[in-house]
Amino acid sequence: MALRRILIWTGIPVLAVLLLVLLWSWAWFIPLAERQASARLGRAVSIADLDVDLGRVTEIRLGGVRIANPEGFPEEPPFAAVQQLAVRLDVMEFIRHRRIVIPDIALEQPALRLIQNPDGRNNYSFPALAGDPDAPPTPPEEQPQLGALRIRDGRAQVSLAQLQSEMQVAIATEEPEGQPARIRATAEGTYARQPITGELTGGAVLSLRNAEDPWPIKLDLANGPTKVALEGTLSDPLRFAGANIRLRLEGPDMARLTPLTGVPIPPTPPYRIAGRLDYADRAIRFTNMEGTVGRSDLNGDIAVTPRPDTRPLVEATLRSRRVDLDDLGGFIGAKPGEGGDRRQAARGRVLPDTPVNLPKLEAADIRLTYDGGSILGSAMPLDDLHAKLDIVDGAIALKPLRFGVGRGRIEGNFDFAPVEGGGLTAKGEVRFQRVDLSRLMGVTPLGEGQGAIGGSARIDTRGRSIAEMLGQGDGAVTLGMAGGNLSSLLVDLSGLQLGNAILSALGLPSRTKVECFIADLGLRRGVLNTRTVLIDTDSSLISGTGTIDLRRERLDYALRTEAKHFTIGALTTDIEIGGSFRDPSVRPEMLELGARAGAAVGLGIIALPLAILPTIRFGIGEDNRCEGLVRRAR
User: Model's pTM, two decimal places?
Assistant: First the structure.
């Protein structure tokens, strides 16, 4: 009986263990693993097979793993499908030090299907994995330690509706003989409606876990005519701790980089730029940048700080030793590069009428400082440029925008804000401080001059383009100059003093002293109306009347000269300036000129000496109107 009891109490457990060993199946744990994975990812996860090889380093093999799409996306194909996933765990390391060490992960034929809908919803975001953003980060010693990752015949199909993109990506790890292991990915398809091809080569995934060993990376990408190349190393890439990368960009228009970078960039002429790309203080930085954009050189630094709850912050400090203002046309809606916008010219327009792209303005908050040391162009009166631009929530502050002109400068401060339905509201003030007249006159066919112009201008408007804003704005312009001189060509042509005008036109201009110059014009609904325009010289008083229509780009203006002293040979009449901005016309007022010329001819028939009578001007004497206006302007 004692023996029987011993056999029963020992035999039954042994038999149970033997039966358990014979009938054991790791598949019994599949439902548990599926529930745990589904709860962690917030997605349905299914596993077809499960097998485990126990040991000091335990290997877990999963077959037929599928991660479903979220609601609102098709069931097939799923977000991810893996034919076989093998994970090796260092059990002894966990028992001794409570650390999770994964020496090896192998994926057989993984397939991903990444989808983004037109409304922005996607199937590759996992909110359940986000965790608490305010929670302190996990110490490095408590984080899982990953080892080698091996991928065979991986592929991904990417469809991004908002970026008009459809790509196929092949991913695999390689272990070429005599060379270090590496990971390689190739992409082909379309991105931003442009064909895209790319190849990425990285170091062995095993080295990803070594924070002290920089991870090499090389990328060559062609998106339509845009080419991107980078080569360098990443520091602790699993935590994105830093980078040391040389980046080169080349293409016909930097605006094409916006879909690739997420940073709004206005249109530019062809460019070629290189610099150092790194990561520090949670910002992606492009430093030591140098290159060319059109005819302008470009240097400086750019930092992009991603912000999870709002738009990214872009901070840039840019410099050009020499800048062509045509290259900056994209910042005001014009077509950049030489020659301007041909379509605009074909319509007979001068002011830029390309609408400002508001979605680009709202894509990021921007802080930009730009300095142009020298402005190119023999016909350009401006010397240098300084601008500070801030964009926050789509509202733009351009304070200041400053141009140097000789010893003086033109400085403006502007505020722009988006409005519903498109367009911007704009308020701005411009100050003219000792602007060198010789620089302005030197680029015109009117002659030469000396002096310093001061004054101010303001505008309050709204519109979709620069032309529309000017065409419906309200404001004023006031300019003045005390002292200086002008080429007599300008003065004499306005009074048709034939002799001096001919001499001046022959390249022998004499100087005409300017006592003062005053221009006071009001802007109402896009039309500049003359309140006062006077040029007081030592011999004449020139006054202007008329309007300048910025909406229609039309001129309707007249200049009249009154001699201060006795003159002979002057057929005084108004000079009419009309036509469009692109093709203006300048001619004398024919009715009055014809009457005076006819009188001279008629009197000449009667008696030749009488023919000069219509050309004799006895003068208006000294006139103190300009002195009072200058006092008021000051």
Answer: 0.69
